[in-house]
Each structure stands twice: as C-alpha cells, then as structure tokens.
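Problem 12. The chain below contains 346 residues. Write out its predicted structure in token notation.
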Amino acid sequence: MTIETTFQRRSLPLEYPFTISRGTTTETEVVTVRVEDGEGNVGIGAAGPSSHYGETAATVEAVMPDLLAVVEDVGDPHQLARIERRLRETVERNPAARTAVSIALHDLVAKRLEVPLYRYWGLDPAETTETSYTIGLDETAVMREKTETALERGYGTLKVKLGTGRDVEIVETIRSVAPDVRLFVDANEAWTPREAVSKIERLAEYDLAFVEQPVPADDPDGLRFVYERSPLPIAADESCITLADVPRIADRCDIANIKLMKCGGLREAVRMIHAARAHGLEVMCGCMNESNASIAAACHLAPLLDYADLDGSLLLADDPYDGVPMPDGRIALAALERPGTGATLK
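Solution.
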C-alpha cells in the first residue's frame, strides 16, 4: 500500500466575533490533513489549535511534515496504535497537530472498511445527544439577540460565556428569552474561588445544568473549594487536558470536559472517557472553533457522552466541509450516509 499525505492551512471567518473572558476572535486558523491510500480512499482530518495551550497554526505547520512522515513510514493506516505511539514520540507537544493526523487516519480506516466511524467503534448511533450552541460574551442586549437567533434556529441547549461584572444580569436576560432550554455557563477561569461560590449561589436560581471552569486551572485547591460548596455541578475544562489529569480532577468536579485538540487524538479521547467514568465523573466533549473536518470525528463519540459542546463548525460564517447532520443541534449519527467521519468537502 502506498500512503500519500498532504496538508493545508487556511483561515475561516466566524459568523460573529467570539468573545470569552480571555479575549475576542473573529476568525479561526485550521490546518487540514489528507491521507490517501492509493486505492481511491482519502482520510480527512484537521487541527484547530489554541494559543492558550501554546499551539498555533504556524506551530502545526512546522511539525506536520514530521508527523506525516511517520504515517508514510508505517505505511498501514490500520496500525493506529503503533502510529499514534510514534506520533507522540516524534512530537511530544502540539496535540492539535497530532489530532489532525489521528482523525484523518480514523476516517481513512473506516472508509476502507466502508463503515461510519461510530460503527467501527461498535457504538449505537441512537444513544446520542445534542450539542450546545455557544453564546459568546458581548453587550447584554447583543447576547439576548444572539440567544433569540439560536432559538429561531432550533437549538435547545445553550452554553453562555461568563466572566464579567454582569454575569448574573446576562444569565437572567438569557433565561427570560429562553426559559425552556438546557443551559450551561462557562467562566473560562475568570473567577476567584470565593467569587465563584458567591456567583454560583446567585446563578443557581436560573436552572443551570452546570458551571464550567469557574477558577484558573493552576489553582486546583481553588477548584476543590468551589466544588465542595457549589449548589450546581462543576465541569473541568482547562483543568482537564490529558489522561493524566483525570484522576487529578476526580475529587474536585462532577464533569470532565474532553477536547480532541487538547488530548492529542481519538484513541486518547476514548481512553479519557473511560477513565473519567471509572472515577465517577460525567463526560462532556467540547471543541475549539473548528471546521467539520475535525468536528465530524468528535461527533462519533456522542454515544459515550453525557454532554456535547460540538458547535465549532456552527459558529463559522461558512464551513468548507459538511459533517455529521445536526438538525436543531441533535447529533444525528444514524442519518449519516457516508463511511468514515462524514467530513467531506462541499
């Protein structure tokens, strides 16, 4: 078998400026990977790197030739364990870059077997969930308008970014126009532990499913302080990056937020899901601002999840890739009529 690989960097504008407590973005840069087997099958994957974790499109581009050289050297895309081990040995950091290769390989293998990825993993497409749709920080009136738009588009689960002096006002406003949606909030490390407890006590009256990453990841004792006093479940995101973090957060949160771009690949994500379950945690799979070239693969994890925050492609002005159907935010794996991840160039 002759394996050929290529990659391409591109910039994708967002539908709206996207603001969290750490700053604002208007576009996302991704690096798309293609792995071909010489028999007409092409695997597609992509990296959506985050500078918060020390990774950019430029660093992905820099290491990608070395990673793809591993794939070509092994020559057999079905040797996923061997390849991913060698990818880690070749590039210790840059998890988004390794994830792009992992996704492309899984897509290729499932296509060679003519099955969707969830079936390759032995998962039930009916045991899925719906993704949340994120309302980024903005003026309260603008966040209200974005919420109204999300409701018009049929989304029944919303995630609201917080980390301002208006946090309670924001949630109250959104609840007033969306009284029936399932609602999460995410502070992105913006609060001190005592501030978090105080705010969560006030936010609890608005029927929130959970609060995500209330305090900085470098304050594990602060996370435990909040967890032990919070009337709402606590999700760990920035505090939960790799498999080794799962036991570290197990006694200081209720939910582990796993992201492909943080952990370095699909096999690692599955390991993290099972480890989180073993520690009594619920599981969410989140994302960065990404295209369906990577989001589609994460959607196939849906049968293993309690929560999904896989709206990265939904936040783009125009995604060049189609992926898993998401009518009204529901991850409709059973409706996928293509093998592999479902990612295909429009």
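Discussion. The CA atoms of residues 259 and 287 lie 6 Å apart. Students who got a different answer should revisit the alignment rule from Section 12.3.
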